[in-house]
Write a structure and sequence with these properties.
The protein is mainly beta. It is built from three helices and 26 strands. It is 8% helix and 51% strand. Strand 25 and strand 26 form a beta hairpin.
Length: 289
């Protein structure tokens, strides 16, 4: 089994465009290749949107070299991008956008949700792409909550939504560029479970709510990130109270990471090229609506 290496915690909240509060759980800027193939995780909310006629969120902005994964727990987003992809993402839905060679997109609270207001909560995860795929054509996968497989844990311990990878023989609906598991988990108080992670793989557990214990007596509180050792197979977890967690594991991408703002490439020269391509309009602008 994998053992707990350390707990990453950051309690500072900030705003990203019109989204607030946002908690930066981890970033490759701080942890480097320790979290590979994952790059960044932001927890947006929980919060409450007051009814309004002015939509909030993040207006048109570019990305290149990686994928964004958005999990909506409450509220409703609208996505539009320069590859003519888009739609509404509601509670329980997941959006997996592959920026790859470049895309311009926007993410705003939907018009209907803006008018009525209400609670919102989301997670956005950035997933790296191998160098060979960074300049491929962009892609988009939209997963409705009803299309995400749910696996019951033994003994009534809880449930697992299999977003990517394989759990207990059940495959997630998302196609990934490298081998990984993205599991959205609920555990009941006093129960234990083991989640898949191969020897040598990165293994991370982000606790949205609750209290967890791993192989040691150290307790991980809500909003903490557990970083496990690469050695060993399997992630053993015990819930000390009812817990909601995101379990991430995957094969490492052992290539240089050079990122700046909305771009994650392998070299500084590629970053400069990305900015030049945006300046010259080479990332196709979003079609007019």
């Amino acid at each position: 089994m994998k053992s707990l290496a350390f707990v990453q915690r950051n309690d500072t909240r900030f705003a990203v465009g019109g989204f607030a509060p946002v908690l930066s759980v981890f970033s490759y800027h701080e942890l480097g290749s320790t979290v590979s193939p994952f790059l960044l995780l932001d927890h947006i909310g929980p919060g409450r949107l007051l009814p309004s006629v002015r939509r909030q969120g993040v207006e048109d902005h570019p990305h290149r070299g990686f994928e964004t994964v958005t999990l909506v727990y409450a509220g409703e987003l609208e996505h539009r991008d320069s590859a003519s992809n888009g739609g509404l993402i509601g509670a329980g839905d997941v959006q997996w956008m592959t920026a790859a060679g470049g895309v311009v997109h926007r993410e705003l609270f939907s018009e209907a949700f803006t008018r009525r207001g209400g609670p919102f909560e989301m997670i956005q995860l950035w997933v790296n792409l191998p160098a060979a795929d960074k300049l491929h054509a962009p892609g988009y996968q939209s997963l409705a909550a009803t299309g995400i497989p749910v696996v019951a844990l033994p003994g009534g311990a809880g449930s697992v939504r299999v977003i990517a990878g394989i759990f207990d023989g059940v495959s997630g609906a998302v196609r990934t560029h490298t081998r990984m598991n993205v599991l959205d988990v609920q555990l009941h108080a006093g129960t234990s479970a083991v989640f898949p992670a191969a020897d040598g793989d990165t293994a991370l557990v982000y606790l949205r709510r609750g209290r967890l214990r791993f192989d040691t007596e150290e307790v991980v509180e809500a909003n903490g990130l557990a970083v496990l050792s690469n050695h060993g197979a399997g992630i053993p977890v015990t819930a000390l109270e009812a817990s909601q967690l995101l379990v991430l594991s995957g094969a490492r991408i052992d290539e240089p990471i050079n990122g700046h703002g909305p771009f994650v490439m392998n070299s500084y020269a590629e970053i400069l090229q990305a900015y030049d391509d945006v300046k010259r309009g080479r990332l196709e602008p979003r079609p007019e609506e």
